[in-house]
Amino acid sequence: MISQRFVLGGELPVRRLGYGTAQLTGPGYWGPRGDARAAVAVLRRAVERGVTLIDTADNYGPSVAEELVAEALRPYPGDLLIATKGGVVRTGDGTWHVSGRPETLRAMCEASLRRLRLDTIGLYQLHRLDPRVPMAEQLGVLDELRAEGKIRHVGLDTVTAEQLCAALKSTDIAAVQNRYNLLDRDSEPLLELCETRGIAFLPWFPLGNGSLTAGGVRTEIAAAHGATPGQIALAWLLHRSPVLCPTPGTGSLVHLEENLDAAAVRLTAEDMRALG
């Protein structure tokens, strides 16, 4: 039987199937998405269903997703891990700027603390490494924030296995986020390293940005389990590696229930071979 939980950073147990907040914002993760009450309802239902890992970012909106998380979930349950990200600046729909100067990262983290209304962010992730700033400086300010009690664990988003190895020489890394799903496995070397080091891997686009909910999975496997293609894609991630912690996002209560029900799908060894 697969484990439904992962102990992040060696101390924080989370349910492996979490929830991501990007879809609570408008197209291109810009601006609000309709009625905020619908977003609040989805967040609250996710926690009611046992989700203990909420993944967000300061640039979703920007600021919109973090503010919704605070509105919906405060006072936060004691077992809920809020993960957020900084290091990317948005200046318009479809416009993203990597910004990793230490003073910028500090300001971003402190702004996230205010929006989330937290004293400590459980997992603070560097959304992108800034190639113009030495990695040691970017990680150094996160270490300072951790020492000050403003963040508990550090994560990295969109890195290679080599970059993670370099980062681990400077500081502890509890989690990474890279694109990874049934149809996109370019990050296999990174996943193997995470397995070796006990690092959580939060795959983004776990449903292939929608492609895996519409026939991207062998439909006979879905039919055999009485499941949807999207549920099979999420179940594959949960079976593929014990460090994979997918956080599929949606703004729909119906799709939320469907996604979370994927945790109950038990794929056989034959299923896994067929899925590749």
Q: How would you characterize the overall build of this protein?
A:
This protein has ten helices and eleven strands. It has 276 residues and is of the alpha/beta class. The strands form three sheets. It has a seven-stranded parallel β-sheet with strand order 3-4-5-8-9-10-11, covered by helices on one side. Strands 1-2 form a two-stranded antiparallel sheet. It has a two-stranded antiparallel ribbon with strand order 6-7. The longest helix is centred in the middle third of the chain and has 15 residues, at 102-116.
The major β-sheet equals: 7 strands, parallel
Number of strands: 11
Question: What is the percentage of strand-forming residues?
Answer: 15-25%
Could you give the order of strands across the largest sheet? 3-4-5-8-9-10-11
Uncertain regions spanning at least 5 consecutive residues: none
Average pLDDT rating: 96
Question: What's the alpha carbon Rg, rounded to whole Å?
Answer: 18 Å
Distance between the termini: 19 Å
Q: What would you call the shape?
A: globular
The number of distinct helices, counting runs of at least 4 residues, comes to 10
Secondary-structure element order, N to C: EEEHEHEEEHEHEHEHEHHHH
Helix content: 25-40%
Which structural class fits the helix and strand makeup? alpha/beta
